[in-house]
Amino acid sequence: MGKVVMYSTVSVDGFIADENDQPGPLFDWLLSGDVPLDESGALKVSQTSYDYTRPYWDQIGATVVGRHVFDMTDGWEGKPPGGVDHVVVVTHRPKPEGWDPEAPFHFVDGVDAAVAKAQELAGGDRIVEIAAGDVGGQVLAAGLIDEVRMDVVPVVFGSGKRYFGSVHAQHLLEDPDVVIQGNRVLHLRYQVRR
């Protein structure tokens, strides 16, 4: 199976959104350079950030998100973000009424089932990305995360939605094996200690 990676952009003090569920300046780094990150050309980053981020995005076969993120983004109108092939939504509720059955979104109850479904969809050599936050914290607590990736940006929120959700136990990570400075972002990658 491919790696299971928890990922998000995060404030210096560990938040992925403010108290109003808004990202504020967290994604400013995606507009801080002159190298297009995708074919739309809307996202432009430094060459350093491109060289780190684009290969990672290209390896993602499926992304796991919670129902809250799905609802907030309006399901990305049925088109997975960042060119990802499949999105697995962890939810206790059925898919929205009138949802396009052809859209590559899969609604699953529970994080264990979601990771298993995402691994099946991603295939053996592609990454399963787990969105940070409550679902990410649950997957980490279940011992299913192999790697933690953070794009740390220079902002302090003080409060809001935590990167690791409501994890209440200690989890050890290895020393960072990647530390890359881009424009308005520090890219970090940690392996989860087993």
TrEMBL record:
Domain Bacterial bifunctional deaminase-reductase C-terminal stretches: 3-173
Instruction: Kindly give the InterPro entries that the UniProt entry links to this protein.
Output: DHFR-like_dom_sf, RibDG_C
Q: What domain of life does the UniProt record list for this protein's source?
A: Bacteria
Q: Which GO terms describe its molecular function?
A: 5-amino-6-(5-phosphoribosylamino)uracil reductase activity
**Which Pfam families does the record cross-reference, listed alphabetically?**
RibD_C
* A GO biological process held by the record: riboflavin biosynthetic process
Question: What name does the UniProt record give this protein?
Answer: Bacterial bifunctional deaminase-reductase C-terminal domain-containing protein
Organism whose genome encodes this protein: Hoyosella subflava (strain DSM 45089 / JCM 17490 / NBRC 109087 / DQS3-9A1) (Amycolicicoccus subflavus)
